[in-house]
Design brief:
By secondary structure, the chain is mainly beta. It has helices at 2-20, 40-44, and strands at 34-39, 47-55, 60-69, 78-89, 97-117, 120-143, 148-159, 170-181.
């Protein structure tokens, strides 16, 4: 009887030790940490905007967006923008659903100004203006189980230093982006 008890105890102890030594499982695609996106709205207008986002946990992420004007058909006078951001998610799923975002933008715009001379608006072309702006955005993100993400975003911010050198003293962020989480 002691032999059977000893064998049974040893068998259960081996199974218990083996049960704790399991391999790490690959997380679901929507729980992965990295995401690359492209703004299809701006691409149609002649701008290239791409975003890298790193999910810190279920509710927050950090990222950076780069924008470059490769065509003159988009008449916003934007040359380039680089925008780091922090997001806070309020959805039930991992880093998705409704979110708010705080961003800082370093960007270059054309130095155009309209001046009023005796009731007539006269355009003045100055040098390109580089400025820093701070702002807030809101948006919504959908993520599929395969890792495809779709995002809609709108936000506004204000230039801090050179707002008097151009008519573009308010920065807006808008996006309809498609991406992949990996």
């Amino acid at each position: 009887m002691k032999k059977y008890f000893l064998i049974t105890t040893m068998l259960f102890s081996f199974l218990a030790v083996n049960g704790q030594n399991q391999k790490e499982t690959i997380p679901y695609s929507f729980e992965r940490k990295n995401e690359l996106k492209i703004n299809v709205y701006f691409t149609a207008l002649g701008l290239l905007e791409s975003t890298y986002e790193r999910n810190l946990n279920r509710k927050s992420s950090l990222g950076i967006t780069g924008l470059y004007a490769f065509s003159q058909k988009y008449d916003e006078d934007v040359n380039f923008q680089i925008s780091p951001f922090y997001r806070r998610y309020f959805g039930k799923k991992y880093a998705s659903g409704f979110f708010t975002e705080g961003f800082a933008t370093i960007g270059s715009t054309d130095g155009k100004q309209l001046t009023d001379i005796n009731g007539n608006l006269t355009p003045n072309e100055g040098p390109d203006v580089i400025d820093l702006s701070l702002g807030l955005s809101i948006g919504y993100k959908w993520v599929t189980k395969s890792g495809i993400s779709i995002e809609a975003l709108f936000g506004m911010g204000g230039n801090l230093f050179n707002a008097d050198k151009t008519d573009h003293n308010i920065i807006n962020r808008r996006a309809i982006s498609i991406g992949y989480r990996f």
